[in-house]
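Recap for those who missed Tuesday's class. We walked through two folding examples back to back. For each one, the amino acid string is listed first and its predicted structure tokens come directly after. Nothing is annotated here on purpose, so try labeling regions yourself before you check the end of the notes.
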Amino acid sequence: MQGRDVVTRVRVIVAIVVALAIVAGVAMLRRGGETAGAAEVTAANDKAHTAQVVEARADERAAATVTQSIAARTVRIDAQTDAYVQATIEDLRNALADVPPAAADAALPAAPVDRLRDGLNVGIDRANRAADDAGAARGAGQD
């Protein structure tokens, strides 16, 4: 009977070794699949991240260009406004200088301010039209 016990033990040992080999093989295949899947996910994430970075950089460059354009336009408008104010001040000085001196006892003559008033009204009308045009353009852009 001992011969049968030895054969049975050998069969049990072989069965255990085969079962362990199968379990080890399944574990290795699963581990390899997880590693390959992780590599694919990492590659996809890297690709998506790169695309987002490229898009963000393009947006950043566009914003910088718009900001520079706005700054340049503001400088031009400031220069034009300064020139207009200086011209208005010069017109006012000229209108006051054109007033003839009055005698000591006489009432002061009226200053010739019609030209100055007309120039100021033209400037105000121009500014109002520009504001209306800007408001209309802003309103049209919201549709």
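Example two. Treat it independently of the first, because the proteins are unrelated.
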Amino acid sequence: MKKTVLLFLISLIMLQSCSVNSEIVYHKDSALTYVTDIDTREFMAEMMAMTPDSLKQKEFGEMDKLPTTWTSLYDLAKQEGKLKTENPDTIKIMKKVLMKSIKENNKPAGISFKIEHFTSEDHQSLKNFTKEEKLPLDQNVYSNWDGKTLTINTDNFNLKPLEAAIRTKSSKEDAEKMEGMMIMFFKNIATTLRFENKIKSISGKHDWLKQIDDYSIRVEYDLKTLYNKDGKFKSTDKKITIVTEQ
């Protein structure tokens, strides 16, 4: 499992022109499903063009081995013969965390990552799991959702999990320059919060959060503002409450 996850993280630190689009679906039963798509087409096209044919298999062969259908971290670990835990909470999380590679014209085009039907009871198990396996989750995964009301702490409008994932595969010198690295690596990062029931009301405002339709909210991270201590906001309420109809 570690080998496969590391391949995923390695792809992150190479993406000088990638886009990250995530979606969190908040289910009526208080669970959620999280999917993030990392578009690497522009970067891969540039890298393939610069890499001699004799080195392409060596440089990109491991990426080709990633599954192209949703596969859980549990199944990946078993396939690699590296399942080293019998902890039921860890195994439960590993079965809910899935990943796959995306190909276009039989060439690597991106990586997707998913948490399937995640419940509030899973939160602590996931936090324990990510202490060792650094996964680039949007922190809204941990927001309080009871099936009707979502409460967001806008202090969590940050990219710390993604930073941690990159830091694990960076040199010490690069890790100390994380702010500049994030702006360099990523073209845009956004997360859509989608609800099964229609949105009834929204309390609180933030520059990065906008309602896009009756069922959806979008959070678009402004990297320059996020990593600029002098960046100014018009609206930065610490708490945003979204209530849905029943």
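Answers for example two:
The chain has a mean pLDDT of 79.
The radius of gyration is 19 Å.
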